Amino acid sequence: MSQNFLLLSKFVITHSAKSKCKLAIFNKVVWNGDASIDQRLSLSQRLIQKQALRDYQDDAVDLAAVITDQVSKLGAHSTNKAAQIFGSVGQSTQTSQVSASNLPTTSISRTRRKVKIRTLTNLYTDEVLAQAFRLLTMLIDLFIAIAKSLAGVVTAHKILVLILAFSATYNTWYGYRDGLAWYNERNAGKYMTRLGVKPDSTVTRAVYLSDIEEFVAHNLMNKIEQNSKI
Questions:
Q1: Are 78 and 69 in contact (CB under 8 A)?
Q2: Rounded distance, CA 59 to CA 12, Å?
Q3: Considering only CA atoms, which of 50, 28, 56, 180 is closest in space to residue 113?
C-alpha cells in the first residue's frame, strides 16, 4: 500500500522572545482519496499510519538533537552570530548567503536510525504481540492490586483466628469419626455377646516383648548348635 499514502513533515520556527525561539516538527500521513479521518481508515491503514508516525517521531527527535548540537556550537554569542548569518527577524529582505566559515564546525557523525521496510504481515504480528503483552500487563497489575487489597485486609490476628477455626474443625471431624467407629464397634460386640458369640478368656493370652525376645534367642541358639555339629 506504499502508493496509497504520502508522508508529510512541517517545520515551524516561532520567535517567542529575545534570543529565544521554538522549533516544532509536525508529521502527518496523507492518504489518497477521501480517507482523511481516522474513523474512515481500515485496520491496515491504521496500522500503517501508526508505524509511519512512530518512525517519523524518531526521525524528528534525531533531527532536533542535531539542531541542538549545531546551535550549541555557535558559542556564547549565538544570537549575534545567527543575526549575522540569517539577518534580523522581520527585517531581512534578501535571502541570506551563508558561507562555510560562518557555520559551526561539524560534530562527530551521528548514526541515524534507518527506517525498515515492513509488510502488513509484520505490522499485524507486532500488533498482536503488543495486545498480548498489554493483556498480560493488565492481568499482572490486577493480581498485584488484589494482593495489595488482601494484604490490607488480612492481619496477624485474623490469620490466628482462621488457623484456630481450621484446627477446631479438623479435630471435631476426626473426633466424631473415631468416636462413631468406636460406638459402632461397641454395639457390634454387645450384639455378638447377646447371640452367645464371645471370646474365650482361657484361650487368649497376652504376648509380651520378653516372650518374643526369648523365642528369637532360642531359635538362634538352635541354629548355632546345628551349624557347629555340621
A1: no
A2: 16
A3: 56
Length of the chain: 230
Rounded distance between C-alpha atoms, residue 115 and residue 2, angstroms: 14
**60 Cβ contact list (under 8 Å, min separation 6):** 9, 25, 27
Cα 217 from chain centroid (whole Å): 70
Joined together, the cell numbers standing for residue 82 give 545567527
Q: What is the pLDDT of residue 121?
A: 83
Q: What whole-number distance in Å separates Cα of residue 30 and Cα of residue 46? A: 12
Residue 73 lies in a domain: yes
Residue partners of 38: CB distance under 8 A and separation at least 6? 46
Q: Are residues 72 and 159 in the same domain?
A: no
Whether residue 88 contacts residue 19, with contact meaning beta carbons closer than 8 Å, is answered with no
The residue to which cell 482523511 is assigned: 36
Number of domains composing the chain: 2
Does residue 65 form part of some domain?
yes
Per residue in 4-41, pLDDT (tens digit) is 888 888 888 888 877 677 888 888 888 876 545 555 77
The residues near 64 (Cβ < 8 Å, ≥ 6 apart) are 23, 25
Whether 112 and 19 map to the same domain: the answer is: yes
